[in-house]
């Protein structure tokens, strides 16, 4: 995203949402890398949930993570 990320309205909305809720990060690090969340099942189940950040501060839905985690089947030893 580089500099174009700073001009996106959603990025500023996410920043103010985090600031109002009391988040206090150290703002150290590279800062241009977007993150993601994966829930991977056992054995051949594969990827049960994939969330990639589209812009800074894009959060994954916690209920969807929990739902995907509940689908993980134990692998027989």
Automatic annotation (TrEMBL):
Report any Pfam family annotated for this entry: AhpC-TSA_2
- Main location group: cytoplasm
GO cellular component assignments: cytoplasm
GO MF, one term, reads: antioxidant activity
User: What does the UniProt keyword field contain?
Assistant: Antioxidant, Cytoplasm, Redox-active center
Among its keywords, does the record have Cytoplasm? yes
Query: What compartments host this protein?
Result: Cytoplasm
Q: Which domain of life is it from?
A: Eukaryota
Q: Which family does it belong to?
A: Belongs to the peroxiredoxin-like PRXL2 family. PRXL2A subfamily.
Q: What is this protein called?
A: Peroxiredoxin-like 2A
């Amino acid at each position: 995203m580089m500099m174009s990320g700073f001009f996106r309205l959603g990025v500023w909305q996410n920043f103010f949402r985090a600031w109002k809720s009391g988040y206090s990060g150290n703002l150290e690090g590279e800062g241009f890398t977007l993150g993601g969340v994966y829930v991977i099942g056992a054995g051949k189940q594969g990827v049960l949930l994939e969330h990639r950040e589209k812009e800074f501060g894009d959060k994954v839905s916690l209920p969807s993570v929990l739902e995907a985690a509940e689908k993980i089947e134990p692998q027989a030893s």
